[in-house]
Specification:
Distance between the termini of chain A: 28 Å
Number of strands of chain A: 10
Number of helices of chain B: 1
Number of domains of chain B: 1
Strand content of chain B: 25-35%
Strand content of chain A: 25-35%
Oligomer: heterodimer
Helix content of chain A: under 10%
Order of helices and strands of chain B: EEEEEEEHEEE
Shape of chain B: globular
Strand order of the largest sheet of chain B: 5-1-2-3-4-10-6-7
Distance between the termini of chain B: 7 Å
Amino acid sequence: MPYYIQIEGDPTKWWIAEQLPTNELTGGQPLTVTSLAPIEGILVLSPRVATVAVFNVPAGTPPPPLGIPGGIIYVPTATGPSAGHVGYVLAGDVDPMTLSSQIAGAMNVGHSQTVALSGGETLVLNGATLPFAVLAPTGVGGAAPHG
Amino acid sequence: MACHIQIGDDPTIWWLAEQIQPSQLTQPLGVLSWYPIRGNLVLSPKAAHVAIFTPPPVLVPTPLSGPGGLYLPTATGPSAGHTGYELPGTVDPDVLAEQIQALMRNGQSQTITLGGAGGTLVLNGSTLSFAVTSPAAIGGATPHG
């Protein structure tokens, strides 16, 4: 059965591939799950997250994922991702999968994680307070087509 | 005397039925909310910041109507048709407010079955800043005293 989750105040409906163990969402380890839409990637969920709503969907399939311009990281916003606004573009040498593990580690110990962005910019994540992050793409071979 | 409060990053200004003092914010607090949702507001001492205002001497506006449910912090606040998660009709909002207050006190989590299309809501009492439980739509403005 397909389902989606909503995390804290971010309005996004995240369609998830695996069933979430709701009894393990808080107080334990960060969870890493596969997000199908609106961004196809890896969703890292903090055990400190304040609220997670898990909705069952009787029928239907996830909407097509948004196009991404390369490796990206989405962190919570007031509006959620949309076409052309899918998060921060990662520096070319940052592997999203590796970064997802690093963010899970930062959430686990409550430390900060610095992320190199394209154009030489830097993103600092606070693992003690960040509720979730989504990294994409997850496949080998670089960025997904943008469109 | 009533007061207005604003909690954390949620933009909502809550009209409360009673005055609260900063010294009360050291433990979970349950107060009656008149607007924009009429219900029970449960406030955690872990809220990042709480602004307490003296309200103007005007009537409380008519609260938003809804199926009864649970409002949790958002970046936009509640609005008509978006008053939070719908709960099953069997859930007593007063009891749920007490349970959330207990969660905030002991830092534990609770899983709640949602109404409507169905689903599950997980609340983390150690990080949740506030919640508002409300009964099904109650019409009419409340006098402001």
